[in-house]
Design goal:
Blueprint (H helix, E strand, L loop, with lengths): L5 E8 L3 E10 L4 E6 L8 H11 L3 E11 L7 E3 L1 H18 L7 H6 L4 E3 L6 H69 L9 H13 L3 H18 L6 H22 L2 H21 L4
Parallel strand pairs: 3-4
Antiparallel strand pairs: 1-2, 2-4, 5-6
Helix pairs in contact: 1-4, 4-5, 4-6, 4-8, 6-7, 7-8
Length: 291
């Protein structure tokens, strides 16, 4: 079991470029890959997304990729002449507007974006890919390792809470037979208090008790609960992504407990249902973070 929360960082350098990659992931129902890399190498994005989606099924993954000249590689600075001339022209126009000379200094040219640029375009897309791909894979592997570690904690917590739910279900099963007996005693007491002496074997009384027993019968719900518990543990034992089926099973468990609660007509059973739904909600919160 893997969590959908994780982080990984990796670097890889070739003779021309050095790539630094940070991979982070958070919860999402579907798989979503966001790639941030220099515009000059935007065509690498499709391949990077394909690598990530092959390793992950759920979660929003952000890949931040930085590229720079490798140590020892020759640096090239490119001057954007158009921007430089535009800045100079702007200062000339400003001088005319305020009617006094204003000149651009070297600091103005350095502060203006994209006038002086390291010419990373001297590296080809293939060279960039050779640096980026291994770094992306290593960063993703580190992130997945963290997701696996977090997933083990989720697994242990969910399994412990599932045991609590099973114990509550056992208490419900043990108590449910006494509900009809309690109703029978309560009905007879009310009849007696009202001054109506009716034999406990009276057909009308037996029919009423039988109808009540049929209305509050929870044997089908208990059978489905046991089936859901068994399936839940099967999914917990799997190595593949199980977030979606576990979320579905949480909904089904909630449905069965709701039905039992509506049939309960008993204070003890009602309290057990409240306890079960409280514990189930904690499981659902954890399952939301399972891949």
């Amino acid at each position: 079991m893997h969590s959908m929360t994780g982080f990984g960082r990796a670097e890889h350098a070739t003779s021309t470029l050095a790539a630094r990659v940070e991979a982070s992931s958070v919860n999402r129902k579907q798989g979503e890959i966001v790639v941030q890399l220099p515009r000059a190498y935007a065509e690498l994005e499709a391949g990077i997304r394909k690598i990530a989606l092959a390793k992950l099924s759920r979660g929003r993954v952000n890949l931040s990729i930085q590229l720079e000249q490798a140590e020892g590689a020759s640096d090239h600075i490119r001057i954007n002449a158009r921007r430089a001339r535009a800045l100079e022209a702007a200062f000339t126009e400003l001088s005319d507007v305020i009617d006094r000379p204003v000149q651009a200094t070297s600091a103005d040219f350095l502060r203006t974006p994209d006038i002086l640029e390291f010419d990373q375009e001297s590296a080809t897309t293939e060279e960039a890919s050779a640096a980026v791909t291994p770094a992306v894979e290593d960063a993703l592997d580190a992130m997945i390792a963290m997701r696996a570690s977090e997933g083990q904690h989720l697994h242990d917590d969910i399994e412990a809470r599932l045991t609590i739910l099973e114990n509550i279900a056992d208490e419900i099963i043990s108590h449910s037979p006494s509900v009809v007996q309690h109703y029978r005693e309560q009905l007879h007491r009310r009849l007696k208090e009202s001054g109506l002496e009716i034999d406990l074997n009276d057909d009308r009384l037996l029919k009423e008790i039988g109808l009540f027993a049929d209305r509050c019968d929870i044997s089908e719900e208990i059978t489905r609960l046991r089936s859901h518990f068994e399936k839940f543990r099967e999914y917990l034992a799997m190595d593949e992504p199980v977030g979606r089926p576990l979320d579905f099973l949480c909904q089904e468990l909630n449905r069965e407990f709701n039905t039992i609660g509506s049939k309960a007509n008993d204070a003890t059973l009602a309290q057990l249902i409240v306890n079960a739904k409280t514990e189930l909600e904690k499981i659902r919160e954890q399952v939301q973070n399972v891949e």
